[in-house]
Amino acid sequence: MTLLSLTWLVASATPAQAARVKDITLIEGGRDNQLVGYGLVVGLANKGDSKSDQIVRTVANSMQRFGINLQGAQLKSDNVAAVMVTADIPAYARAGTRIDVTVGSIADAKTIQGGILLQTPLLGADETVYAVAQGAIAVGGFLGGEGGPGGASVQKNHPTVGIISGGALVEREIPASFVHDNNVELMLLNPDYTSAARMAQAINQEFPQSAMAKNASTVNIAVPDDFKGYEVNFISRIGSIEVDPDVPARVVINERTGTIVATSNVRVSTVAISHGALTISIASTLGVSQPNPLSRGNTAVVASTQTDIVEKPGKFGVLEDNPTIQQVASALNALGLTTREMMSIFQTMKRAGALQAELILN
């Protein structure tokens, strides 16, 4: 991301827009749950796991389910890969509902592209089977070529991880309840005291004296008498109410990708910024010293080193009258900084106490 693009991001930001309650909250009791299972992927065309005791035992146990008794020495695992299967089962998922699963190799298979996952039970944290996965795997990448001495291979993305869309059938429903003692609690996805207070106020305008903000992340709502027995209808009405959530002043920097994102309400105290760059280049080269004819000298390799120092003139800018992040980005653009240099300046401004925002480094 360039500084120009950062300026555009900030400049194009508008004041906080109203959001629906359903888009910024979760209902307590209506959470997802994680499932995991261990299984086999077959049909990998000699790209599977190398032979090991773990793979041999797994394949043998799988074949015993069909009345086939195999000895370990008779098995080859080139076409088979041991995998872990993970999934999230949503709240209120009923038996027969299909959910997506992610499949990942856990041994040394080269790829699981084109493979088929055999029937795999998926367990919850309580060791209970809640779903069963099976099906053809879609891999967002590929592995081509044989590799090794005299060969070549081409790889894109991670061919040892894939997904099966709708690949698991829910077998057991996870009990969930969103009404407790005639009350419903909403949990904010981004906890904030102002946002919680505004949400309670907006709900009370629709249903007087029903909502109360308990803390920065929870809003408690009493179900009105008119909706007793019709709590789903009440939740639907609550979810469509619009609220202006408060966005905290925050600058997020991802140094790995060079990405900088800042909210529009970041403020900066009066600050002076100076920037200068010193570049030192050191180049080593090898030359050949050739003796004169009939001199009986020896040819020798001679190393030479060249050092260049380039110092760019420093620039100095002063930002006054409580500038916004938009003005800061424009000023830093004028200094001709790179994204990485801008990251360093933001960190220095935070240490100096001039950046009135939370600085998050990833």
Structure description:
This protein has helices at residues 3-11, 21-24, 53-64, 193-206, 231-239, 325-334, 339-351, and strands at 19-20, 25-27, 33-42, 80-89, 98-105, 116-123, 129-136, 142-145, 153-156, 161-170, 183-188, 211-213, 218-222, 242-243, 250-254, 259-262, 267-268, 271-289, 300-319, 355-356, 358-361. A six-stranded antiparallel beta barrel has the order 3-4-5-10-7-6. A four-stranded antiparallel β-sheet has the order 2-11-13-12. The chain has three domains: 33-170, no CATH class; 179-243, Ribosomal Protein S8, Chain: A, domain 1, CATH 3.30.1370; 250-288 and 300-361, no CATH class. It has seven helices and 21 strands. The protein starts with a helix and ends with a strand. It is of the alpha+beta class and 362 residues long. The relative contact order is 0.14. It is flat, with a radius of gyration of 31 Å.
Short structural description:
The chain is α+β, with helices and mostly antiparallel strands.
